[in-house]
Amino acid sequence: MQFTQTPPPPLHEITSFPSNINPMNKNQTLRTRQWPGFQTSKSLGSFGDANCMEQLLVHCANAIENNDATLAQQILWVLNNIAPSDGDSNQRLACGFLRALIARAARKGTCKILTGAVANVHITTHKFSIIELTGFVDLTPWHRFGFTAANAAILDAVEGYSIIHIIDFSLTHCMQIPTLIDAIANRLEGPPLVKLTVAGATEDVPPMLDLSYEELGMKLVNFARSRNIILEFRVIPSTSSNGFASFIEQLKVQNLVPANNGIEALVINCHMMLHYIPEETLNPFSFNNTSVSSLRTMFLKAIRSLDPTIVVLVDEDADFTSNNLVCRLRAAFNYLWIPYDTVDTFLPHGSKQRQWYEADMNWKIENVIAEEGVERVERLEPKSRWVQRMRNAGFRGGLFGEEAVMEVKNMLDEHAAGWGLKREEEDLVLTWKGHNVVFATAWIPS
Amino acid sequence: MPEIMDSSTAVNDSAVSGDASVSSSGNQMPPPKAEKKKRNLPGMPDPDAEVIALSPKTLMATNRFVCEICNKGFQRDQNLQLHRRGHNLPWKLRQRSSKEIRKRVYVCPEESCVHHDPSRALGDLTGIKKHYFRKHGEKKWKCEKCSKKYAVQSDWKAHSKICGTREYKCDCGTLFSRRDSFITHRAFCDALAVESAKEPVAPPSVEEELDPQTVDPSPPSPPVQSPPSVPTSSAAISLVLPDQTPALDSTELQDDPIPKSTQIINDTATPVQVASLTASCSSSSNSSNTGSTRSTVFASLFASSTASGSMHSQASGFTDFVHATAQADLIHDLGPSLSIEPTSLCLATNHGSSIFGTAGQECRQYALPPQPAMSATALLQKAAQMGAAATNASLLRGLGVVSSTSSSGQQHWNGQQFESGSASLAVGLGLGLPYDGGSGLKELMMGTPSVFNPKYTTLDLLGLGMAAGGGPTGELSALMTSIGGGLDPAPSYGNAEFSGEKYGRSS
Questions:
Q1: Would you give the DSSP letter of residue B209?
Q2: What's the pTM?
Q3: A370 and A60 in contact (C-beta within 8 Å)?
Q4: Is the Cβ of A23 closer than 8 Å to some Cβ of chain B?
Q5: For A191, which residue in chain B has the nearest alpha carbon?
Q6: Nearest to A263 among B185, B218, B259 (CB)
Q7: What is the dihedral of CA A349, A352, A353, A356, to 10 degrees?
Q8: Which of B158, B152, B157, B117 is nearest to B135 (CA)?
C-alpha cells in the first residue's frame, strides 16, 4: 500500500517536457493530460507519458520527411514497443499514429521495405447496421452533444412555422433526426409539415452505414408518421469534395427552397460534415486559378444565399489543416487523445464496439498523417476560424437559449463525469477534462 | 488505526488539496511518489484539509467498536461509549475542541484509483466507504428484477424502488433508460416497420384524433420531385410512449461512468509491467517474471521478424506483432534475420532486407539530418532520465540509467564515442532489436571490456547485435544496468567494430 505524500506542484508551473528537466526536479516532471479524478496509466511510469510519445512521433515524422530511413525505423521500433495496440489509452493513441507514420513512410518511399507490407495493412472500418449505429452514437456525448444543442436551437428558431425544411449535412446519417422530429411533434402549436433534404455524401468516411439513404428515409418517414408528422424525405447525392456545389445547385434547380415567406422555415444543420470541404490549404488545380476563395468559403456563401432561418454548425474543435506534417501530427495528437481517453468510460476492453470505435479513430489519424492533397479529407478547423468564416459569409451568431443549455447539461449528466459544457460567447463547447472537444454554434443571416 | 471521526461533511468530489499533508493510518508510509503535472487542474484547492488514508480493512470493517458485555458492535466509538453507559460501564465521550476543527478528506487505498490522489480525496468518511465498496468491493446485492448488482446496500434499495419503472422498451425487446436513446432506436428499428405493416388501419387513438393530413394548416406546394420513399400505407401508427422523463438513479450515475476497467492495477506491491520492454529491462536474470502477457522486448522484436506473415493480414498489424511474440522464441531463426531476411519491424520480411540489417549496413551512408530543436538522442536520453525517476522500469529507462546515473556513461554515449549525433542513441537501441528474450545482448554488455576489440566502431554494434541474437542468454537491461552501475563502458565500446561471429565466440 502506498500513499502519496508529495504535494502536487503549484498549478501555474506547467513544466514543458523536455526543456527543463533536472534531476532535482523529479516531482515536477511532465505536462500530462491527467485530470484529477481520472485514472491514467501509472504502469509505464513517466515514460508512457503522452509527451514523450509525442516527441518520438514528431522525430519519427521528421525522419520520414527527411528521408532518413534509419532513424525513422529505429524510432518506429521504439514506438512499437512502448505503444502496444492493446495498451492504455496513450499507448493506443500512439499506436494509431505509429501505424499512420508507417503508412506514410511506405507511401512516400522513405522505407521502401515497408511498402509492400503496408499496402496490405490497412484499417478496416466497420460498416454499421442502422441499429448498431444508433447504439453507437448513443454511447458518448461526442455526437449527442451536437444533436441536443442543435435540436434545441432549431426548435426555438422554427417556432410558429407550419412547414419546416431541414437540410441535413451530417456525418452520422440522420441519427439526429428522430429526436428532432419527436421534439417538433410535441410542440404546442401542433405538428408542422417537415421536409428533410439530406446531402448523401458519396465519400466513404466513418462511421459507414450498411443501409441506403432510401431505406433510411423510409424508416424516418414511417417514424414521423407514428408521431403524427408528415415527413417528406429527399436525398440528393453530393460530395464534399466540390463543396456540395451540385447539392446546392439541385436545391435551386428543383426550386426546393422557396423565398422566405414566413411560412416555411429553412434549417441548415451541419453536423461534423463541413470540415470535409476543401479549404485554403488545399488547392487542387480544378479551381486553383479560377477562384480566389476556397470551396469552404463558397459553400458558406451559397447557404447564405438560401436565406436560412437558422444554420447550426457543429464540429470538432481542432486544427488539422496545416500543410506541415509535424504541425498536423502535434495538433492531431493533442486532440485525438480524447476519444481514446474517453473510451474507457463507456466501452469495455475487447468489446466489438470498442474495436469499431478505435478503428474509426485510426482511420482518422491515418487520413491526417499519411494522406495528402484531396485524399486528406479530415480538415478540421477550430471554432474561432469557423466563427470568422460564418461572419464573413454574412451570418451573425444566434443564441442558444437556457433551454438548450439545460438540455445539454441533462444529457451530459447521463455520461461520464469528465464531460463538461462550456459557454464561449454565444457558442456551446463540449469539453472533456476541461479540453475543448466539439463546438456548437447557431447562426442567422445578418 | 486512525481515529474515525464522524464527519457530517457532504461527499465532496472536487479537488480538495494541493498540498495537503497525508497522514497515514496504520498503514506503512509509502515513499514519496512522483506527482505528475496536471494541466487545467480544476477545482479549488483547500490547503487546510488534512488527508486521511484508511486501510481497506478499516474501510470494510463494520461495527468495529464492540461492547465487551453484549458483543454489540458499533461503527463509531462515540456510539459505543453511549452504549456503555447502559451497562454502567465507564464511558468517555471525546470532546471536540473547537480550535481543532480541521477539514478532513479521505483518500482511497487503491493505488490505481483516482481517489487515491489527495487532490481527489473524498470529503467524508461515509463517502470514501461507499466509494470503496462500490468501486473496489464485491457486489453482493442483486436486484431480483433486472439482476443488476450493487456493492452498497442502500444503492440496491434505491434501485429496487425504481427498477423497471423508468425504462423504455422497444417492441424488439431492447430496453432503454433514456428517452432520447429510445426515440432514436425506435425510429430505425424494424419493429416499428413491422408494426406499421401489421396495422395498416390503426384504431384512432387519442393521439390520432388529430390527423396530420387534415390539420395541416398550410398544405405545402407539391414537391417538384416526389419523395423517393413515401410510404404506401397512409394509416397513422399510434406509438405509446411513456410520459415521464427518465430520471436516472443517482447512484447508478455515480457508478456508471467509471467502469470496472479502471481497476487495472490492484496489487500495489507489484505494479503491472505494461510494456514488455519494461519487463525485460527490469529483470536482469529472468525474463519470465515479467507478468506481462506480451513477453519481452526482444521476443516482440523477433516476433516481428518471424510473424511477418501475419503482418500481411490486414489491419491488425501491430496486434499481430504483439500476439506473435509468444511464439517468437520458438520460431526465430537468427541466420536469416542476420543477413538475408532481417526483421525491419517485421513488416516486410518478404522484401528481403531488414530495417535493422539495413541500418547496420547503411548507417554510415546516411548523412544526419539537421537537428530538430532537441535531437532524438537527447530526447531519448531525457526520456530515459524520466524513466529512471519513475517507479517502473522501461527500456528507455534502462537506457536512461546509463545516461543519468553515470556521467561518464553519458559522456560515452554522447561525446566520445558517438560522433554521429542524433542517431547514436537510437542506434544503440537498434542494437537490441533483433534479440529474442533469451539472446545474449546482456551477456555482451555485461561482458568485460576486453570482450570488445577496441578497433571496432560503435555503429557496428548493430551488426553485432544481429549476430549476438544467437547468444544463449542475456538482456539489454543487464547491459544498461552494468553501464549505469558504473562500469566504464567506454573502453568496452571504444571504436568497437566487432562482427556477429566474434561476438558469438565471446559469448
A1: G
A2: 0.54
A3: no
A4: yes
A5: B212
A6: B218
A7: 110
A8: B152
